[in-house]
Amino acid sequence: MITSLLVAFLNLNHLLPLLIGQYGSLVYLVLFLVIFIETGVVVLPFLPGDSLLFLSGSLAALSGTTLNPLLLIIILSIAAILGDTVNFEIGKHFGHHLTSPRFQRWIKPKYLHDTERFFTKHGNAAVFLGRFMPLIRTFIPFTAGISKMAYHRFILYNVLGGLSWVSVTVLAGFFLGNIAIVKAHFELIMLAIVAISLLPAMLMALRRKLKKPATPVN
């Protein structure tokens, strides 16, 4: 399964134009579902949200395509906001059941633990900042739901984060995705986007590791 997902991820730049050519405007629905599922289904945090948004923006910049950057931002922002809202409700009503040992194959304890630390440290802003971090992005609203975060606070940062994440990534693809060097190394660019998105979480983990007291030598 992981191999299939990796192959699909690395071939997004070939697969998405084929889907656009075959299905036209129905591709908006496909993109909506992918973004909604990545943000709304806590057991599927590995879908390529950042890469898909960037690629969609770059394709929207091409003449003759059915994709419109403004429509992409509106539709996919709604998908991201609804996804996080559903995830929040899942965490609020079913979170303690889904974190039991029998679900650990899908909801990795390490991911959840890292997300809880991030949420505890950054509070309300975690809902906004978490948008830009793969894996953590999916677990933040789930964790917010478990912690019974006030809904009016959650929805505010959810909307701001969803709009910002989709707008920045789609527009980056629109303005930068068709530069010659980017097009020539698109697969590497996709991997770089994921790596850059994960950088805050990696730095946080490194900082935590460096803060750990040294084990005394007997």
From TrEMBL:
Residues 58-173 form the VTT domain. It is a multi-pass membrane protein. GO terms for cellular component: plasma membrane. Its main location: membrane. It is found in: Cell membrane. Keywords: Cell membrane, Membrane, Transmembrane, Transmembrane helix. The keyword Transmembrane applies. The chain crosses the membrane at residues 25-47, 59-82, 154-176, 188-206. Pfam families: VTT_dom. The keyword Cell membrane applies. Belongs to the DedA family. This is VTT domain-containing protein. It comes from Secundilactobacillus odoratitofui DSM 19909 = JCM 15043. The lineage of its organism: Bacteria, Bacillati, Bacillota, Bacilli, Lactobacillales.
